[in-house]
Amino acid sequence: MVRVREPQNAAKDDPSGGAASFAELYESFAPTVVRAVVTVTGSPAVAEDVTAEAFAKAWERWEAGLGDSPTVKGWIWTVAMNLTKRRFRRREVPLDRATEDPFDDDVRDLDLWCAVADLPRRQRQVVALRYVAGLAEHEIGEVLGVSTGAASASLAKARRQLRHTLGEAR
Amino acid sequence: MNDNELDRRLEHLTAGVETHLPPVGDVRQRGERLSTRRRHIRRATASVAVTVPVLLLAAFLLRPQNGDSVQITSDGNDETIESPSTPDVDADQLLGRTFVGDRVTEDGNVRLLAGEMPLRLSFEADGQIQTSGGCNTTEARLDLEALAQGHLKLEPWGERFSTLAGCLTTPDLMDQDTWLIDLLDSGIAWRLDGDDLVLTTEHLEIRLTDRAVVEPDLGLIGTVWTVDILVDEHGEESRVSADVEATVLLSTDGNVAVYTGCNSGTATWDLSDDRLHIGDLGITHQACPDDTAAELEDALMAALSTPQPFTVSIDAQRLALTDPDGRAVLYLRGAS
């Protein structure tokens, strides 16, 4: 499991403080999870539901006294990525790629967005975890259940493909 | 483009994405429902194991005579249905089976449905059910206690997943999805009648038939199997474009004919139980007319080059090939 330090959880000393700390984690961390999952699925609606489900499961752990573990963020990343995979399997996310526009009006880098959307799912996951979640390659490997070498190789492949696609787009 | 520029752009990739998350209280409630559901499933599973034999014994000892009516309480409302001559509510007989159909009567009058055999209920061994009224498929959890007592009912607080097809040109099918889900949310009496699953309320009867009877599994040999879904080395699935078609046909003479979309070839095949081995494929080498056909050919050849034997699994008109590690390699669909 990925070891990402998080703010101290007050639940240990004050049981009523657990909810407040969970709320703090949710408010500070959930938007990043949504952005990473959008990168993988292309669908804001799916990303928000996946994130809410991952945090709902995290709340179960939190209540069971496991919430203050330093691995909780890594655990949430793993759950979110597994849920994403599950949604693909269930065909909730179209096979090719989602067609919703995840941006409202402010499209910052549409070429890059389209290039990422064309990557295979595993490479999109690696890109999301590296650049949106800010995880190191060994942490990405732990989240996805693959070796650091495999995560690095996927990332290198994705970057090579993106450079190629964006080079062609010019 | 250099690496630094790519990194900079990737770090800002999602800068414009707005998030609309539910309040944290809703998320906590969802987590609590998950906990409750887990506890309930554990209880219900244990309960079903004990209840079913007891119910069967009770049903045998107290079985009503033909023509008797029985009272069924569903969500606080009393309903009266005519008892079947041989009521069969052994829940284990449902699990693992799929029932399809279109026969619905309301107060004795036939209700016409949109689509061809649009209603489908699949009971999975773990207590999940997949339902469809003809458009989308919804997966939900069954209320196992109700099931053992002769009622088909969805867990009200269970998680649900649904496909999101629009079916814009056939809104009736979407309406049927909703109608079926509403019935299952309310709870509906069920019984087996031969190969049929009969669902009844006071005014309504739905008769579905075991899918294995209506849509029997196609034979592996002699069926033209069209490649439907490709699976890459990461396990990612992609459906084959409708513009190209690749096929596989196993013949009784021990040869398999493969058409990749632009080239054709043959090999020998050998089947032992459900393990299929395909020999070396000799194939023509014509240039494919376009990239789509070439990509399909490459993907099919790669799939057939993976370690063998393949495990063969046929479900109605669908053939799945998996490698010795249990990973899906190829999905094909056949025509009867």
Q: How does this structure look, described?
A:
The complex is a heterodimer of chains A (170) and B (336). Chain A has 170 residues and is mainly alpha-helical. In chain A, 68% of the residues lie in helices and 0% in strands. Chain A is globular. Residues 1-19 and 90-101 of chain A have low confidence and may be disordered. Chain B is an alpha+beta fold. Chain B contains 6 helices and 22 strands. Chain B has helices spanning 3-11, 24-61, 144-148, 171-186, 211-214, 291-304, and strands at 69-74, 77-82, 98-106, 109-111, 119-123, 128-132, 137-141, 151-152, 161-162, 188-193, 196-200, 204-210, 224-231, 237-239, 247-250, 255-259, 264-272, 275-278, 282-283, 310-315, 318-322, 328-334. In chain B, the strands form 3 sheets. In chain B, strands 3, 4, 5, 6, 7, 8, 9, 10, 11 and 12 form a 10-stranded antiparallel β-sheet that branches. In chain B, strand 21 and strand 22 (328-334) form a beta hairpin. Chain B is globular and about 65 Å long. In chain B, 25% of the residues are buried. At the A-B interface, helix 1, helix 2, helix 4, helix 5 and helix 7 of A face helix 1, helix 2, strand 9 and strand 14 of B.
